[in-house]
Design a protein that fits this description.
By secondary structure, the chain is of the alpha+beta class. It has one domain (30-128). The chain contains 3 helices and 4 strands. A 4-stranded antiparallel beta sheet has the order 1-2-3-4, with helices on one face. Helix 2 packs across helix 3 (102-128). The longest helix is centred in the C-terminal third of the chain and has 27 residues, at 102-128.
């Protein structure tokens, strides 16, 4: 009788151990795109859609024209270098003129705001899951 009781307790402890050691799932990545043609004064033949993707935990980056521009963290403030690289890529693609270059600053602000919004959304979603 004692053996069954100890066996039962051992099984319960083992089950608790297995459940507590389960690996958490990888964070889910979310992305948001924005057309920057007007902000960067792009010709109609230039695809000016940039996408920001983040998982809110370890990875965030912009994608433009098939190239990923990584942030150094998962805060919007860590994306300044990536934002500038996207801006340079848009200029190299033919966007921006001296006539409307002031709008480029609005485009860079829009890219930064896109990161802030998506990161806030990803974080709030992870709190509810």
């Amino acid at each position: 009788m004692k053996t069954k009781k100890y066996l039962w307790i051992l099984m319960m402890v083992l089950a608790a151990f297995v459940v507590s050691c389960e690996k958490d799932e990888d964070p889910i990545e979310a992305c948001e795109g924005e057309d920057l043609a007007e902000d960067f004064n792009c010709p109609v033949d230039v695809d000016a859609i940039a996408t920001f993707c983040a998982d809110g935990v370890s990875d965030s980056y912009y994608t433009y024209n098939g190239t990923d521009y990584y942030c150094t963290g998962v805060e919007a403030s860590t994306c300044d270098g990536a934002i500038i690289q996207v801006g340079i890529a848009l200029i190299e693609a033919g966007c921006g003129t001296k006539k409307k270059s002031a709008n480029m600053e609005n485009g860079l602000i829009k890219l930064s705001q896109m990161a802030e919004n998506l990161l806030a959304e990803v974080r709030s979603e992870s709190l509810y899951n």
